[in-house]
Amino acid sequence: MTDTEKSFIPVGRTGEKETDMSEFKHGSMDTTEQEKTFNGFLKFAGYGLLGALVFLFFLGLIRG
Fold first, then answer.
1. Quick check: is 10 in a domain?
2. Dihedral sign, CA of 45, 46, 49, 54?
3. What is the distance between the alpha carbons of residues 45 and 37, in angstroms, rounded to a whole number?
4. What global pTM score does this model have?
5. Contact 17/9 with Cβ under 8 angstroms?
């Protein structure tokens, strides 16, 4: 192996040095955006379920 191959540091698309997974610290990532997105999804799914139940209720009244 040549000296150039030994000193090669992988570089990502942004030109930054790639992070080694061994450098990861559990719990250090900011997850506020993910939590807001997930909560929005749950709210959307809850309203969708409520709307479907109301629709089925009225359908039952009409077709009764």
1. no
2. negative
3. 12
4. 0.55
5. yes
CB 12 within 8 A of CB 18: yes
With tokens 């150039």, the residue in question is: 4
Tally of domains within the chain = 1
Show the domain range for 45.
Answer: 31-64
DSSP track, the chain: --HHHHT---B-TTSPBPPPGGG--TT-S--HHHHHHHHHHHHHHHHHHHHHHHHHHHHHHHH-
Q: What is the pLDDT of residues 24-42, one digit of tens each?
A: 788 888 999 999 999 999 9
Provide the pLDDT for residue 30.
Answer: 92
